[in-house]
Amino acid sequence: QVHFVESGGGLVQVGGSLRLSCAASGSISSIDDMGWYRQGPGKQRELVAVMTSGGITNYVDSVKGRFTVSTDTGKNTIYLQMNSLKPEDTALYYCNVVYHSGRVRYVYWGRGTQVTVSS
Question: 67-98: string of b/e by CB count within 10 Å (b at 16+)?
Answer without folding.
Answer: bebbbeeeebbbbbbbeebeeebbbbbbbbbb
